[in-house]
Design a protein that fits this description.
- This protein is of the alpha/beta class.
- It has 2 domains: about 100 residues, no CATH class; about 230 residues, Rossmann fold.
- Helix content is about 45%, strand content about 15%.
- The chain is built from 17 helices and 12 strands.
């Protein structure tokens, strides 16, 4: 159902497992009817043959007992029919269980596996914009809600394994794409673990991940980075699409303001921004007039929900928004625009930032009115004592700037400097449902 402002209304679920087989559009009933028709025709064919043989052939006396001729015909038909139905049901259930075993969860009924798959196919069209671990964490939770996911990923990364491959082979940085592919994979299989494996020794291999090398090799084989992403996604049975915001080779630049005298210091390269020191005044791309990837624009225009973040504000989210026409497409889209603020600040990037400061930084770069809703963590009773280097302090919710503020418990209790993927996905879908219902009521 589409609301008045264009948001797609979430569909109501059927909670009784036995009736899920009858949900319209699940594509089961039509094939069951065809199967029953085929079995009936085969049974009639067998009956014609048996009647002919029974009337014309002379059989040994034992067939009198084997064919249950000592029992009335109606009772005989009921017994044979019951055995036939039982055999068909057992065979179909076991056959489907075997075929669907790679996709089913442990101890999950077969009907729930099929129902879950169909529900994800009918889920809202969702576009997530960002990069880094924040984006992959979000996608891992959202893939349980919908398979109509498009992740638009930054290509400004120039550090670590991605930076080395970018400099040595001239490919776009594959690291963030690798993480998104693994997050959207059908299951955390051995293949997925292999994709994320990072070499810790070996001349030339130390520091590289297998997935980065795989994507780089696939780009050489297929002739393009986008084809490499598509083929890599196919290998891991990815639910959704992973797209670059641009196919051009870009460099993220930053103007950092010195704390002592307030002078601006220009820094080149995404990996250098947080290491230099000084408050970030603005970031921008070189070259400045970067063409967007057309499929990314199409996905944005066709979306029901567009999510910014979570992720590094200036080095993961902003590089996508600085690509020409990305923000214009977002403004033109009828989708709900949701910004997910980080749980914690990042040293050298967002020191001392509140949630409102995060949103104000986006508006300072791309203008006001882009974000409709801001989702902020409000669980602050956790400790960041064991957080890795680079993590600052918990982000204080504050007040929203030109956007509706929604608060929720989003913390991963084991790693409280990050979001919990399940909590975040649930909160995102709840916000969308509430906003859609409110728009429909108006």
């Amino acid at each position: 159902m589409i609301s008045k402002n264009g948001y797609r209304q979430p569909q109501k679920a059927w909670h009784t497992s036995a009736w899920k087989w009858l949900v319209p559009g699940i594509n089961i009933k039509r094939w069951l009817v065809l199967l029953l028709l085929g079995i009936t025709l085969l049974a009639l064919c067998a009956a014609y043959l048996l009647v002919t043989l029974y009337r014309e052939l002379v059989v040994p006396p034992m067939f009198y007992y084997l064919t249950l001729q000592f029992i009335p015909r109606l009772l005989r038909a009921a017994i044979v029919g019951a055995l036939g139905i039982g055999a068909v049901i057992v065979a179909l259930v076991q056959l489907n269980r075997s075929l669907l075993a790679p996709f089913a969860r442990p101890n999950e009924p077969l009907v729930d596996t099929v129902y879950r798959h169909r529900q994800r196919e009918r889920g809202i069209k969702l576009v997530s914009v960002g990069g880094g671990t924040g984006l992959s964490m979000l996608l891992r939770g959202l893939k349980e809600r919908t398979s109509n996911i498009t992740a638009i990923v930054t290509v400004a990364d120039d550090g670590g394994s991605s930076g080395r491959l970018r400099r040595e082979l001239g490919v776009l940085p594959p690291g963030d794409f690798r993480n998104c592919i693994a997050a959207l994979a059908q299951s955390e299989s051995l293949t997925t673990q292999l994709f994320q494996y990072r070499f810790t020794e070996g001349q030339g291999l130390d520091g590289h991940s297998f997935g980065n090398l795989f994507i780089a090799a696939m780009a050489a084989v297929t002739g393009s980075f986008e084809s490499a992403l598509a083929e890599s996604s196919r290998v891991l049975a990815v639910q959704g699409r992973i797209l670059p915001s641009t196919l051009q080779n870009v460099t993220l630049m930053a103007d950092l303001r010195e704390e002592v005298d307030g002078r601006l210091n220009r820094v080149t390269g995404e990996s250098s921004i947080t290491k230099t020191g000084g408050a970030i005044d603005r970031v921008y791309l070189e070259p400045s007039d970067v063409r967007p990837y057309p499929e990314a624009i199409r996905a944005i225009l066709d979306a029901d929900l567009i999510i910014l973040g979570p992720g590094s504000l200036y080095t993961s989210i902003m590089p996508n928004l600085l690509v020409r026409d990305i923000v214009q497409a977002m403004r033109a889209s009828r989708a709900l625009k949701l910004y997910v603020c980080n749980v914690a600040t990042q040293h050298g990037e967002t020191d001392g930032y509140s949630a409102a400061d995060h949103l104000a930084a986006i508006e300072r770069h791309v203008g006001k009115g882009l974000v409709n809703v801001m989702l902020v963590n409000d669980r602050l009773d956790v400790s960041l004592a064991n957080a890795p280097p680079g993590v600052g302090e918990l982000v204080w919710p504050g007040e929203a700037v030109e956007a509706r503020l929604v608060r929720a418990d989003l913390v991963d209790v084991e790693r409280p400097w990050r979001h919990d993927s399940i909590k975040l996905a649930r909160a995102v879908m709840d916000v969308y449902a509430q906003m859609s219902a409110r728009a429909s009521a108006n």
